[in-house]
Amino acid sequence: MSSSTLPSAGRHEAPLTLEEPAPRVLSFWDQSAFWANLGVSLFAFSGAYTVLAPNVDGLPQISIAAGIVAMIVGTVLGGLMLGLAAVPGAKTGKPAMVLLRGLFGARLSYVPTVLNVAQLIGWGTFELIVIADAAKELFGGGPRVLYVLAAGVLTTVLTIWPLGSVRLLRRFVTAGVLVALVWFYVQFVREGLPDLTVNPGPEGSGPFGVDWSLFWIATDAALAVSISWVPVAADYTRHSRSTGAAFGAASGAYAITQIIAYTLGLFALALASGESGVYGPFLQVTLGGLFFFVFVVREADQSFANVYSTAVSIQNLFPRLDRRVLSIGLGTLITGLALWWKMDDYFGFLGLIGSVFVPMLGVLAADFFLRAKGEWNTDPDAPSRWGMIAAWLAGFAVYQIINPGDAGWWTSFWVDVQDGLGFTKQAWMSASLLSFLVAGLAAWIIGRVMRKSA
What we know:
Blueprint: H1 28-39, H2 43-46, H3 49-52, H4 64-92, H5 96-104, H6 110-138, H7 144-160, H8 162-191, H9 215-227, H10 233-237, H11 243-271, H12 280-284, H13 288-298, H14 300-317, H15 323-338, H16 346-371, H17 386-402, H18 409-421, H19 431-453
């Protein structure tokens, strides 16, 4: 790599500690390339099954056509939520977890910060697992440990120069990804897709072979992937040159490419045989190995984003820690975890993420845009705001009651709560949308009451 293509450093890079100002150097196109690349993920291929089998019985519950509709609805809604989360970072120049000082208070912000660190470590680990599994299938075998280590090293290197890596994505990677997407669409259509309106599972009904009581669960599964980036969006948009660029890039570029990628993943599921696996259709078409290699290498930007945001989140707890030291330590940690963990409970993981961060975004949107008008106290001594915690917990409870997910004893507890309340979920109920609205409404009411009391 020549000196002209090395990631930028100095005043054009992210600050090393929380006490240094964030440079405003990312244009709309820089951010669009970044979010567009995050929207195209191997998770869209390996995880597309979660949209078709939202109750995790091991067999598809809705048709591929219905899955595409659910995925589009969930992704568009999730993209808009991601755009809302992007604006406060661009307006204040603060990273995501520091913004929560203004929402909950400095000390209370430590609670969602710890949760965010935990979920980002999980996402970063899952990304390395997916990269390793895809590389092993691409190269026809080989030691899994080698693929995990290579992905971990590449992730850590990108994380040390985060803004330079974002610009690198725009210059070189995005074009290759778009060409690969077009190539696979053309090849899959030439292969001849089966009837997408037929439910491949035994329990579908109604138009498109979909059990509509499961439609919103499938939508929530797709939305949860977008929502997973909500608690980190400001880590990148704090470097945006304008709030409009931050909102447009996060909501538009991400949603468009995720829809394209997930639809491609659902097409691949329609073509996959029992022996070929989820990646088989990609590798069996003409030049499939070459273009699939682009996806495998590009996937490192997902793990890079997770590791960098984990480091920045930890700085909310320890502002003077050097993010480079944190990045190296976190890269080592997720690499070790990826050698140990398996992808056995992906859907349950998504459900828990959505139930935590969707209502938190509802509280943030109501308080930041309606009450505070974009002005928050994010100082280290910002006073605690228990009312906003109460609003968050109200939205969280609504999500769990509507969709307890599939997480063992946790699910059993919320099923007991359903029974105790005599609650029966209706087909039109979306856990994500209703928890977002309840949390936002509660935050608005509590904010007005507190303001009148003051």
